[in-house]
Please model this.
Amino acid sequence: AAGELAPHVAMLVTPGMGHLIPLAELAKRLASRHGLTSTLLTFASTASATQRAFLASLPPAVASRALPPVDLSDLPAGSAIETRMSEECARSVPALTAVLADLRRTTRLVAFVADLFGADAFDAARAAGVRRRCLFFPTNLHVLTLMLHLPDLDVAQPGEFRDLPEPLRLPGCVPVPGPDVLMPLQDKSDPCYRWMVHHGAKYRDADAVLVNSFDAVEPGPAAVLRRPEPGRPAVFPVGPLIQSVHSKGGGAAECLEWLDRQPARSVVFVSFGSGGALPSEEMRELALGLEQSGQRFLWVVRSPSDGGAVNDNYYDAESKRDPFAYLPDGFVDRTRGVGMLVPSWAPQIRVLAHAATGGFLTHCGWNSVLESLAHGVPMVAWPLYAEQRQNAVMLAEGVGAAVRVPEAKGRAKIAAAVREVMEGVGRGAEVRRKVAELQKAAADGLRDGGNAAAALAEVVGTWMRGEDQGDE
Ligand code: UDP
Model:
């Protein structure tokens, strides 16, 4: 099958820019470092304008193809996004089998990669005769450890995680208090929980797991997972894979021009990812907390989550209502000059790379965390959903790269956390030092011979050897 064609990889992307962006980065790196081409396979449910623009901006070595739509109308209205993604994937297996069989005919297909909610697609890869099955885990080694242990925990620990009397302790990991454990696991009667247990078991069907993390940010689980273990796929931390080019969005130029006029390291960037929104009461306290902190801020303001879920905007980041209408009276006037408000979306990478940015108040979505670390920006942690609370624990209590805002989110506590990080006082001094160290470790790992570069080269090596074993 070899011939002149470049080796090719098919990658299944479950919905969400937070899954697409790092997988696209992986595809780009496979092309530039290893000469592989790829096809990103996307679901019909996420054919948003943002996603289309993003896919169109990718280099020619990275193609994309949308799977045919599947009917999800029988799912209950309140179904969790994780349930929707998992169902969409499971129901797409027949179509995906046909697509992979077609790619095997038309390309030199060496491997299939699925992301964290796409492990059911390994059945399609098997049926289509693709030799190598690989899981791409866009979040971190702590969450991967939990997922791999989940089928056993499900049996050993019948109660709800939030009721655990002691923090959850897993090999190498920072102990996580029950209520901070991965949100989709917090209600065992929800179908979402069953799906997660299913995925955890299905991960064992992979030959290898590529993880978008790096050893220095979570040395404990890195040491454990890098050791081979019978019955568990080999684990390769290949991150941080972060966005290098940025798709254009509304308001981009305006906020970058504003940053150009601010002193170095003086601005705290405030953003809750592509889908996050706060309840209106917390949004109000945040506004007053930022004001009270006396720091300059650039805030991506979303309409509050009242009446909806905290991840209401997940499939479509455009806020539906006027978000500024929910700010406290007089806030905009009082903070004019020190504060810049952007509705819905900001060019986050460029903001984090800007010399004026000195801190990041973040929801701790893993891409945001990696982007912050890669640019040496210390964090204020304000987690919302998914695995964000766990990430906050690991960052604030583990490696020490963030100060977490306490649970009862009043303006004074918010102001204090922001000031610690921005002024380098209290815990802020150590956080700033640690983040500088992690920035260097992240960059070193990705250079030739670095940990992450070597891990990816090793996986590519197994794909090429798989091909040598011959398919026909
Ligand atoms: N992002 C952005 N502008 C925004 C909000 C988000 O560019 O206003 C990007 C951000 O840089 C990151 C991704 O969207 O790459 C969000 O991923 P993350 O894992 O942090 O959070 P999620 O959106 O999955 O909750």
Q: What stands out?
A: The pocket of uridine-5'-diphosphate is lined by residues 16-18, 21, 243, 271, 273-276, 300, 345-346, 348-349, 365-368, 371 (CB under 6 Å). Residues 160 and 189 are 10 Å apart (CA to CA).
